Amino acid sequence: MAALLTLDHLSKRFGAVSAVTDVTLSFERGRLHAVVGENGAGKTTLLKMAAGIVSPDRGQVWVDGARLRPHTPREAIRRGVAMVQQHFALVGALTALENVMLGSEPVRAFGVLDLGAARSHTEAYAHLVGGSFPWDVPVERLGVGDRQRVAIVRALVRKASVLILDEPTAVLTAQEADGLYAILRHLADAGTAVIVVTHRLDEVSDHADVASVLRRGELVSTHDVRRDDAPGLRRIARDAMGHDPLPPARRLPGPRGPVRLEVRDVHLGAALCGVTLRVHAGEIVGLAGIEGNGQRELVRVLAGLDAADHGEVRTEPVAVVHEDRQNEGVVLDASVRDNLVLGELRSFTRWGFVDASALDRVAVRRMDDAGVVPKDLDVPVRALSGGNQQKVVVARALGRGFPVLVLAQPTRGVDFGATRAIHQAILDAADRGAAVLLVSVDLTELRAACDRILVMARGRVVAELPPTASDARFGEAMLGAGSSPAPVDELRP
User: Fold this and answer.
1) Residues β-bridged to residue 143
2) What is the pLDDT of residues 198-213, one digit of tens each?
3) Most CB contacts within 10 A, which of 6, 36, 159, 358?
């Protein structure tokens, strides 16, 4: 097949850090091409160069045999290259519909905006990705899952011949991810070059035709993908990590202590409708559900950011990881050091003076434990990859040693090696007596880590299931089919 997009000896440095080094790679019509690698491997920078968003220091980008010139996003889009970024590049004050059509608005005579045509055109593509959208709501009021769907629909509306998606399934359920890949397969079969950055090897195995591996900014290998090829997947993982991956961390049920987090009949607008749950010391309780069913609002209530309209929350000191790291997890222009100890300055202050040495020791330990790259406390968090930003957020929460942990999507956008390390750190915290509420759209993650799993639907806890319950049973509960609120005294499996 003919290469529709060619990256020719691309290199890019940011200060002293070499993000991409002399990468040559082609993407063909009609193929779904996965780009994998650990956080900080250069995947996003490489593809931002392909989309005209970042200018290379050396090398060229070729689209359908012609050089991309000028090297700008506008020219790339005009030439048919569209990228859905991990952080969605949406305008918060505009509605979902306005964001989708921004720059390609349909008009009637005399330049009048045709909102009806915009809506019908957009809804057709939204249906393809399984989304039901509040089109007239400002994007800043949407959850992270809906915002990503808006970004994906915006790219599909533009009918790109090269479609680049950076971690597109990070906020989707397994069923929604399968639906998205079905659409991507349809686009590839129709001649589109589809490029997906992912950390999920099962997605590579199930959906990709080709997988290219980057490590430390360099192209390590490119593989044709065969379905159910376990040795091939292990080879890809080994190429990405530089060594054989460790087995997944698994939860071994143990004794539980007293209740450390209790929520009774909590209501918040239309988002939460009588949520009740308990988490005991030494216990990891999962919270599953389709995005937008109250999980985000519950986490905000538990963090003290929103006050419940009704009900009661009793908790010991709690550390929280929010689902939206950029808006609720980090201060982008502050250093890695400051973000790793954010909110803890008093702990390092004596007689009005900050003990900088003690602060640095804690920050370095957390940075090393989390595997943040680059290992530089002075780098602003904005300069880190999305996965490394997530590592900073999780390292700060787990490093505080609080008796209650509320973790929303803690491994979102994180590579498979770091995911295992985060899971092990969560298990270790529970073994030390922490009460952990783990919110995730990834059932595999919940099954591996949790003692029991609660399911939310329409703002209520509708079921409690053991990790061994079938996908079908979880799916029924998530849709609210035949379920009733879980009892206050939840059962252990």
Assistant:
1) none
2) 888 889 999 999 999 9
3) 36
